[in-house]
Amino acid sequence: MSKRIAIIGAGPAGLTAAYLLGKAQQQVTVFEKDPQYVGGISRTESYKGYHFDIGGHRFFSKSKEVEDFWTEILGDEMLERPRSSRIYYNKKFFSYPLVAFEALNKLGIVESALCVLSYLKAKAFPVKNPTNFEDWVVNQFGQRLFNIFFKTYTEKVWGIPCKEISADWAAQRIKGLSLSSAIWNALFKPSAKAGDKDKVIKTLIDSFRYPKYGPGMMWETCTRKCKEMGVDVIMNCGVQSIDHANGKWTVFTSTGEKIEGFDYVLSSAPMREMMGAVTPRLPEPAFSSARQLGYRDFLTVVLICKDEDAFTDNWIYIHDPSVKVGRIQNFKSWSPYMVPDQNMACYGLEYFCFEGDGLWTSTDADLIALAKKEIRQIGLTEESAVVDGYVVRQPKAYPVYDQYYKERVNDVREALRQYPGLYLVGRNGMHKYNNQDHSMMTAMLAAQNIIAGKEVYNLWDVNEDAEYHEGGERGAEDAEQVKGRMVPSKLNE
Q: What is the DSSP pairing of strand 248-253 with strand 258-262?
C-alpha cells in the first residue's frame, strides 16, 4: 500500500530517500528552502560559467549500496580523479597524506627528533580514556606533532580550544590513522583492488570518483529522475513546523501552506531548528537539549585567476596562524570541466566563522581583498593574476562536537520514540559530522523501513563508513530480507 512521505531538505539524504521511495511507488513530497540549488552543502554553485563546491566532496565509500547509487544516477558522467593535497605550515608545504622522508627533511633533524621523542612518550604514557580532541590526537601522534599539524587548523575550523572538542570528532574523522599507519602508508601504498576498499583508511585514499561538473550534478540529476517518477520537489519552500495528530503528520510551510495527511516525515534540517518546530512539543530535557546544540558556519571566497601553474592540489590545509584562511580548494584539479576556460583557474578560499561575527558580516569586496592578500602571502599565486571574485556564505555547515553534544543528542533520540513516523537523517538532521555516504545510508535505511512498514533498521546504528551495525534486538534475518547487503557489520575498532 502506498504511503505519503514528506521530506524536509533536498540534500544527499533527502534526495536519496526521495529517489528510492519514488522507485517503490510511494507518494513523496520534498520541501527545499533554497530557491535554486539542490544538494545542500553538497551542491555546486556557478558564477560566469565557473563551477565550485561548498567545500570539496570526494565520492568514495566503503558501502557498495552507496557506490551503486552514484553509478545508477550518473553512470559515465563520474570521473576517476587523483587525490592530491598538502598542508601549509611554517611557510612550507607538506604532502598529505604524509610522505615520511619529505616531512622529516622539511621539519629538520632537531624538530623531527623531538617529534619522535614526543610520539614515544605519548605511547609510553597515554591519556587513559581520552574525552577531548587534543588528548585523543596526542595519544595517536604525540604532543609535538599535534601542535604542528592539528591544533591551529582544528581551532580555525571550530572556533573553540581543542580541549573543548569531543574526542568523538577525532575518532570519527581520522579513524584508523596514527603516526605509524601514516608512515606505513607512505612507504607501502595499500592495494587499490576492488575487494580491498574495506581495508583502506579513508583519510589516506589516493583516488576518488567525482562528477564532471561537481557534486551538484549528482543531485540535480537525481532530482530530475525523482520528478520523472512522480516525486514532487518544491523549491523555495522551507518548513516552518510539523504537527502530529491522529496518526498523521501535517506540514506548515514558509509560504503559508498547510499540507495534511503524511504518514512519515524525513528531516535533514538542523536538529536544533527541527526539534523546536514539532507539535506536540518535545518533552524536557529534549527540547532544551536541542536548543543548545551548536553549529559552525563558513564562507568560501572564490577567486578566478589566470592559470599560472600556481599549484595542482585538489585542496590545501592551511595550518599557519598568520592567515585566517583555513583551506584552499583548486576546483580545476577536482575536474577540468569546472572551469570553462583552460587558461584560467578557480580557487576557493574557505574561512570558518560563526554566523554574525566579523568575517561573516564583512562585505564581499573586503572578503575578496582579504583572500587575494592571503593567497599571495601563502605563495600560491600573485594578486595580479586574480581577475574576479565571488563569495558564498554557508550557515550551519558543521554540527559542533563540543563536550555536551552527545548527551543532548541522546535526549532528542529518546524523545523521538513518542513521535512515530518521524525520521531524522543526514548530517544536520542527526547532528553527526559525517560524509555524504553516511547521510545517504541513513536515508536508504529510512526508506527501507517505510517500504517494509516496520522498524527493521535503527538509523543511528550506521557507522562513519556508511556501514550498518545491528545494535538493537532486531535480527539480521529481517534486515537481510529487506535489502540483501545491509546486514550487520563489525563495529569500528
A: antiparallel
